[in-house]
Amino acid sequence: xxxxxxxxxxxxxxxxxxxxxxxxxxxxxxxxxxxxxxxxxxxxxxxxxxxxxxxxxxxxxxxxxxxxxxxxxxxxxxxxxxxxxxxxxxxxxxxxxxxxxxxxxxxxxxxxxxxxxxxxxxxxxxxxxxxxxxxxxxxxxxxxxxxxxxxxxxxxxxxxxxxxxxxxxxxxxxxxxxxxxxxxxxxxxxxxxxxxxxxxxxxxxxxxxxxxxxxxxxxxxxxxxxxxxxxxxxxxxxxxxxxxxxxxxxxxxxxxxxxxxxxxxxxxxxxxxxxxxxxxxxxxxxx
Length: 287
What we know:
This protein has 15 helices and three strands. It is mainly α.
């Protein structure tokens, strides 16, 4: 990527970045790791209050690892995709047992933690430790695809070639600031459905804009939520989060009328380790 692109993006970021607590200098690696788990498929506005409550209760990996995994599920609240809470708890345990309670700085060590994939490992290595590694979330990939290739299409997961190209685009200095700047540009300006090209700092060199903003070949699908098994799971899990003890099946029956779907949702929660069945037709969060 040419230096003018890097300069334009980082200058824009310096003037327009959101003041997010996990980006502040005082936020340590644990705070960054927690934020990355929570921000997966979840907007910042929903994450902020849960992240703040989480860090007040568990300011480090050791304090979370000392509690049952069910408490992580309870504190997760209504963020959605609650298996992330179990994985974050498992990561905390691994940090305590394998790294003395300190979040590791090396990409490979981060990647080996439960629930940590390529993106999360790269993000923590970059944003918490300043490592020069390519951070490829959906926002970053969208900016690169549009600005450099003139396309609004991209595969579901980054390809080997895409990762190599992104690594080659990193500046020689302060790569972590550049990476978060590109991510912020994709989150605030080069958005999926309503890109604000008129206030984009790299509009003059954007291949996609020059091509007339061609539509993606594959239409984006909107995932339905109301009436789905996922909604049923959320209702059942909400009852269990609110109670600090076993819950009878009869109480769960009251929150979802479709018996077949309710049973399927409850079985799925048990299979995922989010709920433990007990004798007497009772259920609880994992102990």
